[in-house]
């Protein structure tokens, strides 16, 4: 009888240990913006206070459209999966869906953004959370546009001029032939040499565009931060006397995401 009693106690405490181990941390979190597309910059903020993850360095494990690039080894998450500390047990993680999941926007739209938070070795983890789905990308026609809408200095970038969407008579009437581009660092200083007179290509919709890799076109050194690309289009237009004269549009800019 005593032996049975002892075995029962052992089984009881083992069950308690297994149950405690199986319990997952419940954390507080916010996602900004509340509605986002695969090309939007998203900020995930977490608060680990009062959970079993409190005091630990958190790592993200994300899924939904598929495994995120952070999902390498459960027992050894990479540095790119680590949250950035804000204060105490508050942390944040910034991502863009297309880069985060290494998929095209069309493969992500309508799919859920799901995640959990874990320690590097996976010994402690949170519940699974699915705050929302990726929304469709809404095209807003403007004189200047770029693709991708959200991009980094390491990605191929296309810059477009669509003369249908401007109130300026000169912008409507001039004949575009080239684009001028310069790169600026976070301090507003020029990176490399400004490129002028790069030939543009007329698109099927009537717009004009130019596609390039910033790193290659500007010979950006490794480790050099680029904050934005500033550009304008040039060509010719008829003046009030009917003479053909040079013309350059106002400048537009593309602010790069800091993905590295």
From TrEMBL:
Endpoints of the signal sequence: 1-22
Keyword annotations: Signal
The protein's name: PKD domain-containing protein
């Amino acid at each position: 009888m005593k032996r049975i009693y002892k075995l029962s106690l052992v089984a009881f405490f083992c069950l308690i240990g297994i149950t405690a181990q199986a319990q997952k941390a419940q954390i507080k979190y916010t996602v900004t913006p509340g509605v986002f597309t695969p090309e939007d910059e998203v900020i995930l903020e977490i608060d680990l206070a009062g959970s079993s993850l409190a005091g630990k360095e958190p790592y993200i494990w994300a899924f939904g459209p598929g495994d995120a690039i952070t999902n390498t080894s459960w027992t050894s998450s990479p540095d790119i999966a680590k949250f950035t500390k804000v204060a105490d047990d508050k942390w944040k993680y910034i991502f863009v869906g297309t880069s985060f999941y290494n998929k095209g926007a069309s493969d992500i739209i309508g799919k859920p953004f799901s995640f959990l938070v874990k320690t590097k070795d996976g010994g402690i983890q949170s519940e699974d959370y699915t705050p929302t789905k990726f929304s469709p990308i809404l095209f807003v026609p403007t004189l200047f546009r770029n693709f991708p809408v959200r991009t980094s200095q390491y990605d191929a970038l296309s810059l477009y001029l669509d003369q249908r969407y401007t109130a300026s008579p000169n912008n409507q009437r001039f004949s575009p032939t080239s684009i001028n581009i310069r790169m600026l660092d976070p301090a507003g200083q020029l990176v490399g040499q400004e490129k002028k007179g790069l030939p543009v290509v007329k698109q099927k919709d009537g717009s004009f565009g130019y596609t390039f890799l910033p790193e290659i076109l500007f010979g950006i050194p490794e480790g050099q931060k680029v904050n934005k690309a500033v550009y304008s289009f040039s060509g010719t237009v008829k003046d009030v006397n009917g003479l053909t004269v040079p013309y350059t549009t106002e400048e537009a800019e593309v602010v790069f995401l800091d993905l590295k």
